[in-house]
Amino acid sequence: MWSVREAEQAIRAVKESTSLPAICTFTFSAGAKGYRTAVGVTPERAALAALEAGADIVGANCGNGIDEMVEIARLIRDAALHAPILIQANAGLPTFAKGKTIYKQTPEYMASRVPNLIAAGSSIIGGCCGTTPAHIAAIRAAVRAAIPK
Question: What is the value of pTM for the model shown?
């Protein structure tokens, strides 16, 4: 999501029509004033608005590689102290070569950043654009290794 208003409406629709958990993620880009959605919403404001509307889980997806998502997770955690946070990073930002979209972050690279995401407050970690089953398997192994039994 980009818009708080649209997110609030979607969350309310989920809550009114199902007993399933409502998960709301936003896409942020870095700019001169920090991370914002395409319509100017900060991660902190997005998370709080989604929670106030009834979201059970908040977070960020797409638009960033895993390194940028660490800071975004930290900003969301600072605002949403007790909410589960979902982070789904791209396998880096896309580049174009020979008519193909290429994502350069390898499964191993993304997995190496998982401890940073956990330390920043992420509760659920997945993948977005450019991630493959190998990326998800590496992330899963890194999560298991980072969380004490």
Answer: 0.92
